[in-house]
Design goal:
By secondary structure, the protein is α/β, with parallel strands linked by helices. It contains five helices and six strands.
């Protein structure tokens, strides 16, 4: 099953895959507000559809600051990611280092998440 969710600032494509939810978020620019919005939408979709595992892939032309990433990860439980295993891939490899910082911040707050550079590794970890 596939479903699209679109706002003025981003598009999320949801796909029910075997054992997990795949969510692809994309947009022109990223910011704290945009990231908070799409992560909240993904968490709500997981809860509404009974998913405990999600692979999030994103493609935004710009990135949030490291401070914004830290703040976003600090709110992971508030938006609904408690108990949800999250694999994350960014199509922009130049953003990997900052995303790994976000992973560390999320892990330190008790979220279950890992950043990957390819879907195969992300799926293997997510389904393990």
């Amino acid at each position: 099953m596939k479903k699209n969710y679109k706002t003025e600032r981003y598009l999320i494509q949801f796909e029910h895959r075997d054992g997990y939810l795949y969510a692809f978020a994309q947009g022109k620019e990223d910011s704290y507000e945009i990231s908070f919005g799409y992560w909240t939408d993904i968490a709500a979709y997981c809860r509404e559809n009974g998913f405990s595992k999600v692979l999030v892939e994103e493609d935004f032309e710009t990135d949030t600051s490291v401070i914004d990433k830290y703040e976003l990860m600090s709110h992971g439980h508030e938006v609904g990611f408690t108990g949800i295993k999250i694999a994350f891939i960014d199509r922009r490899p130049e953003q990997l280092k900052d995303n790994q910082f976000g992973e560390t911040a999320a892990l330190n707050r008790g979220l279950i998440t890992k950043v990957f550079s390819n879907i195969q590794e992300a799926e293997e970890w997510l389904l393990s």
